[in-house]
Every structure is written in structure tokens, then in C-alpha cells.
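Fig. S4 source data, part A: sequence.
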Amino acid sequence: MNTPWNSGINDRGLKEQICEIGRRVYNKGFAAANDGNISIRVGENEVLCSPTMICKGFMQPEDICAVDMEGNQIAGTRKRTSEVLLHLAIMKERPDVKAVVHCHPPHATAFAVAREPIPQCVLPEVEVFMGEVPMAPYETPGGQAFAETVVPFLKSTNTIILNSHGTVTFGKDLQDAYWKTEILDAYCKILLLAKQLGNVEYFSEQKTTELLDLKKKLGFDDPRFHVEDCDLCGNSAFRDGYKQQLPQQKAFEQAPQYPGYLQSQAGSATATGGDTEQLVKMITEQVMAALGQTS
């Protein structure tokens, strides 16, 4: 049978690529201890993958193993990762995908644990290079049921949050797949910091349309290209629910000498059940002290 593939299960260069991506994942703090797994398709029925129970930061080419598209191990001295079934499910549904990276980047995984949807229409780079980030339902990792959780989302994205687990990103090669992980975690970190400072601002419809036009000119696809009159920034769950998950204190809280501080003190005392007489006495003393400083 004619095929565009050249079998690469013995290609040391490809194995070194997996090791290099493993080092990046580990050094960025995206995978602790033995977390995460990496794969690259090298033939019609052959996929190189990281083995189970190995730190991704210390892999060597001889550690890499190979499986067929059903998950049967066909090469390697170490046992293949059980989560390779997730990678294979993606490759089966998306013939254009040649590489998959699964790991637990902390900021993105925080959204996965909170089950907080990732918003759109916030950063230009995310709109153009990543787009929508769906959230797959939780399933116990390792089995076929876990692998199938991502299947409904594969036509519209290359980046998926795995609820209460981590992330999976994929693309035309290992570097492409890995970069999406970096972009996603950096974006989630920015969202967390911005929310602590005050609020997350969203693009207008006009500015979002301009970014989508740019995305189309660059040759990237987007589900919003194919839906007439769709809500360009669809996901509003972040705006409604996420603010409840963070500390209420702002970065530039008023110092005690400002009048607003007295109000916060009064509210604090009331909240903790302080009696009214003690509260009035405290406020009076503070007011008199302030008057004494200005006389």
C-alpha cells in the first residue's frame, strides 16, 4: 500500500526530540516527578512515546518506546505509558496531528481543578494562535474511557483542558504541540494576576473581528469562521463565576491613615461579632487622634 509515511521507530533524532520536549516540560514546572507523556506519530501504524514511570526531564533516547495505533507496544525496553491511548484517540480523529503533549502546567491545571472555563477575547496572541480551549469531562486516567473524553472537541481546537487533571495540546510536530502548552499556561497565569488586580477586560466585537480577520490571513482555522452570527466571545462563565474564587483584597489597598480605613475597621468588627459600644469607642478614639494630628 502506498503511504506518505516513513517508519521512524528507530529514528534516534525523533527520540531525542521527545527527550528535549520532556526537558522543557520538566524545567518549566509543567510535570512533577513522573507526570506527563509525549508522543509523535512516525508511520501509518507507528507512534513513538514516552514510557511510564519516568521523569520527563531525565529521559534518554533509549528509554523511548513505540506502539501501534491500537496501543500495543511494538518496540522499546521500557513499558509504554498507559495514557498513550489519549494520544492515539487524538491522532485517529485528526490525521493532521503528528505530535501530542500531555502535562500538568500549574496555572492551566488550576482552571482544570476549579473547572473554570477559559475565556476568549482577552489577548491578541491567544485569539490568533490558540483560539477556543474546551474542557473535557473528568474520567479516571489511563483507560479508553479517559481517551474518549476529548473526542467531541477535536474538530475545533488543538488545546484541551482535562477537568481535574491537566492539559493536552497537539499539532503538526512536537514543538508546535509544546508551544500551545506554554501559551495556555502563560495565559492562565495572566488571567489569575489580572483578576487579583481588579478585573479582566474583554475585546469589543469590532476588535475581535479584526483579530479573526488576521487569523484567517495567516492561514489558521477557527470554529467561528464556520458559524453564521455566532457569539464571537461565547464563553462568559469566567466573568460570572471566577471572581468568587480569589481573595477580595486588592493590590493597592488603602493605608490606615485614610478615612476609608475606618469604614473597613467598622465592617471587620461587625463581621466578627464585636459589640456596638466597643465599636463606637474604637472609631471615636481614631477620629480624635486624627483631629489631634491636624490641630
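Fig. S4 source data, part B ends here. The chain has two domains: 12-242, 259-294.
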